[in-house]
Design goal:
This protein is an alpha/beta fold. It has two domains: 181 residues, HUPs (Rossmann fold, 3-Layer(aba) Sandwich); 125 residues, no CATH class. The chain contains eleven helices and eleven strands. The longest helix is centred in the first third of the chain and has 19 residues. The model has no long low-confidence stretch (mean pLDDT 94). Bound molecules: iron/sulfur cluster.
Length: 325
């Protein structure tokens, strides 16, 4: 018997897998990458969790279909920020079902705990998700199973319901107990939602779609740096520290110039390639303002390969008006 696990890398989904493995069920853990999961690469962590509970891991990239079908026109609307949680979950379940059929697996599992997240994980929301994705009866939630109606896997006797959990609510007590019992190491305490639930990230998204068509290649651009919208509508991104500078430097997206300082240390920046001359002038001044420079002097920046001269603003306050955040 084989199950497909919707796997976040978090403690709950890891424990859910373990509860299946304890009953001799083979588990393929799939992590569905919408592109908005995290600014960090969590592959290693996820692999480590799967290794500890004996599951195979597959990362499924749905970035393109997520942008086309979910993010910008969610049937069930958004949560508090730019997060279309109900539609997003439904998409994840339908992707999981697709994989279940392709892999010859018999049912799905997830680490969801009833009542843990009021918005997306209450009973009604979950039922909507299951109906929308045609997964009703197929999805077993081992962590809360005893509090839920029996699913196909339990009814058919593939899984012993008595050996599952009945956890509800926000307390993590039982999860910690289980983690200790099985000697699970290096697990993460549960984070919030994805980047789309973040207020500042959402502001950047709202600003972006007012000015440009959002594409898969833009996802990475949104994750790093200080974001500014200049007078004529160009987007300027300025790295705020070494790590962000490195990330920005590695982005390949030909909608943007890569801007580097020449002769003075400074942040890595990116500017829309369709920027007007006035916005290029502003961008040069803004980037130089984040360097150790003085307004009396002239400095050089390279826009891709082309060198441009300019001077900084007299203070960072002059840039404030352009800050998206
Ligand atoms: S928090 Fe993000 S990944 Fe999770 S359901 Fe909501 S939109 Fe989807």
């Amino acid at each position: 018997m084989k199950a497909i696990a919707l796997f976040s890398g978090g403690l709950d989904s890891t424990l859910a897998i373990k509860l299946m493995r304890d009953q001799g069920i083979e588990v393929l853990a799939i992590n569905i990458n919408t592109g908005f999961g995290s600014t960090k690469d969590r592959r290693e962590h996820m692999q480590n969790m799967c290794d500890q509970v004996g599951a195979e891991l597959k990362i499924i990239d749905i970035q393109s279909e997520y942008l086309q079908e979910v993010l910008f026109d969610p049937k069930h609307g958004y949560g508090k920020n730019f997060n279309p949680c109900i539609d997003c979950h439904a998409k994840m379940f339908s992707v999981a079902k697709r994989i279940m059929e392709a892999e010859g697996a018999s049912f799905l599992i997830s680490g969801e705990v009833m009542g843990q997240r009021p918005m997306s994980q209450n009973k009604e929301a979950l039922q909507t998700v299951l109906n929308e994705s045609n997964c009703d009866g197929l999805l077993l939630r081992p962590m809360s199973a005893k509090m839920l109606a029996p699913t196909i896997a339990e009814i058919n006797g593939w899984v012993d319901r008595e050996r599952l959990e009945g956890i509800t609510g926000r307390s993590r007590e039982r999860q910690m107990e289980l983690a200790k019992e099985i000697g699970l190491e290096d697990f993460e305490s549960p984070g919030g939602g994805c980047l789309l639930t973040d207020e500042n990230f959402s502001k950047k998204m709202v600003d972006f779609i007012k000015h440009d068509t959002f594409e898969v290649r833009d996802i990475l651009v949104m994750k790093f740096g200080r974001h500014l919208r200049l007078s004529d509508g160009a987007k300027l991104i300025v790295g705020r520290n070494k790590e962000e500078n490195e990330h920005l430097q590695n982005i390949e997206n030909d909608k943007y110039y890569h801007i580097k300082t020449v002769g003075v240390p400074g942040p890595h920046a990116m500017l829309s390639k369709n920027a007007s001359e006035a916005d290029k002038y502003l961008a040069t001044k803004a980037v130089l303002t984040y360097c150790k420079t003085t307004p009396e002097n002239i400095y050089t920046l390279s826009y891709d390969e082309v060198e441009v001269q300019g001077s900084p603003f007299s203070s960072r306050e002059e840039i404030q008006a352009f800050n998206i955040l």
